[in-house]
Design goal:
It is built from 22 helices and no strands. It has one domain. The radius of gyration is 21 Å and the shape is globular. Helix 18 runs antiparallel to helix 21.
Length: about 500
């Protein structure tokens, strides 16, 4: 019976991922036969890469459901039961750090930063610094739930600090820090942190139980911004003078996969090992699961590992480079509005491509007992993200447009709206910002933006090629809260208190 349930779950994951990846693959194929033809070997590598991304991401998400999510729930219960601030803080930091180290989106971004900076910024330094930042903010987020502090006030303080630090760092580090924020909350960290926040809020109980179920992902996603900015200021690095590595297209069809596969086998062991060790240690001293449940979680972690290896191999050997080449070639065409138009189209399909978006919207519908429909949330997502990618392309094209021109008013509006909408929408919106930018954004869309920046003489790959993940992460903060504001207005017109309706 259980084998059948697991088989159906795996089929659902493959269906979900296929519907996510195939629209992007279809766009690439159409562009290849119309506007920007690419080398036949590259196209075949892309198709193989797309299949590996589907296969890998499907197995990975299946493993996350079997292994990572249960660990998140168990850790949430364990953390809440301590009910001691110091222990909650320590556990929050530890969990946030270890799960972020294993995040594939962050791994991909760190490598891209390393290449774009000509090796000046180490990929592993990005990985460790960002993980520390997430660990600290997860700890603070859990303490907020424990002490029942308002979420909007916490965001106000955090983003004020980010604004002050943003005045001290260069454009390169601003772009890297905010992109790291979006990449951190991906397919690995999002379900884990959601489960952690939900577990703590449930055991804490009280009338704020529903609204406290959300917001932890949003708090966690501010950690990378603060960490990267502080790293830049403490290290005294304000500008990166290194020459970015020249983009080299792979040759052959099978060769790149044979080269990447063994490397991903090794590197993925390093990223997942901390999570495995954490589970084994906590199970020994705290969880004390029976053999059957323990083995089920370990099997889930094995699936997570296999899926991650296949996904990263597909991304690195054939999927991501096409995004870069397409961005470069489209930016070189004479049609000035073509780049933002295709950016808009990519944004529309990318939101459906992010597994974490589905995780969040389903949890929203579940926690609110169907009051907030997942379909409505997804429409708000689509509009916001399509606009974000399109504006990112305009920023690359127009030298006078800077990243902070969009981020500063966007985050300011998001914080302002947090005082005007029902509290649950604040948590959902800031969580949405974290989950919107996942595997497809960190791979294809970011590569597309870097290709466009490489083609436009007035653009800089390190400054303008990054920032698109940040834009994707910012827009849901505004669109979801505007949706909450409309819910509130509708409720007032009908004489209904939105918070009470959700609670019921």
């Amino acid at each position: 019976m259980k084998g059948g349930v697991h088989l159906n779950l795996l089929k659902d994951k493959f269906k979900e991922v296929s519907l996510s990846v195939l629209p992007i693959s279809l766009i690439v194929i159409i562009l290849n036969f119309t506007l920007v033809p690419i080398d036949s070997d590259m196209l075949i590598r892309f198709i193989i890469g797309s299949l590996l991304v589907i296969l890998g991401l499907g197995i990975f998400l299946f493993g996350v459901d079997l292994g990572v999510n249960p660990i998140g729930n168990l850790m949430g219960e364990t953390t809440a039961k301590t009910n001691k601030a110091i222990l909650v803080g320590i556990l929050g930091f530890l969990l946030g750090f270890l799960i972020t180290v294993a995040e594939p989106d962050l791994f991909i971004l760190a490598k891209q930063v390393n290449q774009a900076s000509g090796g000046i910024i180490s990929a592993y330094s990005i990985l460790i610094v960002v993980s520390i930042g997430v660990g600290i903010m997860v700890a603070l987020g859990l303490l907020r739930i424990l002490f029942e502090k308002p979420l909007n006030k916490m965001y106000t303080i955090i983003y004020f600090i980010i604004f002050i630090l943003g005045l001290k760092v260069s454009a390169e580090f601003l772009a890297i820090s905010v992109d790291a924020s979006g990449a951190t909350t991906g397919a690995m960290t999002t379900p884990f942190i959601l489960a952690l926040g939900y577990g703590v809020s449930q055991l804490k109980g009280g009338k704020k139980e529903e609204e406290d179920s959300f917001g932890l992902v949003g708090v966690a996603s501010t950690g990378p911004i603060l960490a990267i900015m502080l790293m830049s200021i403490i290290a005294g690095v304000t500008n990166i003078q290194g020459q970015g590595e020249a983009f080299v297209v792979h040759e052959g069809i099978i060769g790149p996969y044979l080269k990447e596969f063994p490397r991903m086998i090794r590197e993925t062991v390093y990223t997942l090992m901390p999570v495995i060790l954490m589970f084994l240690i906590f199970n020994l001293f705290k969880f004390k699961l029976n053999r059957r449940n323990r083995n089920k979680i370990l099997k889930g972690l094995l699936y997570t590992y296999i899926g991650l290896v296949l996904f990263l191999t597909g991304v690195n050997a054939g999927f991501m480079e096409v995004g870069r080449v397409m961005g470069y070639k489209i930016a070189n065409l004479d049609h000035s509005l073509l780049l933002p138009a295709i950016g808009f189209l990519l944004g529309l399909v990318v939101v459906l491509a992010e597994p974490a978006v589905h995780v969040l919207t389903e949890q929203v519908e579940y926690v609110t007992a169907g009051y907030i429909k997942k379909s409505v949330i997804r429409i708000a997502f689509s509009i916001g993200i399509a606009t974000a990618v399109s504006m990112s392309m305009l920023r690359i094209m127009i030298p006078s447009l800077k990243l902070w021109h969009f981020l500063l008013p966007g985050f300011a509006l998001a914080v302002l709206l947090s005082y005007k909408v029902p509290p649950i929408f604040v948590g959902i919106a800031f969580d949405a910002g974290g989950v919107a930018s996942g595997p497809m954004t960190a791979t294809f869309v970011l590569a597309f933006a870097q290709g466009a920046a490489d083609a436009i003489p007035t653009a800089n790959v390190l400054v303008d090629g990054f920032g698109v993940i940040a834009m994707v992460a910012m827009t849901p903060l505004v669109t979801i809260q505007l949706l909450g504001y409309l819910f509130q207005l509708k409720g007032k017109k009908e004489g209904i208190d939105v918070d009470d309706s959700i609670g019921e």
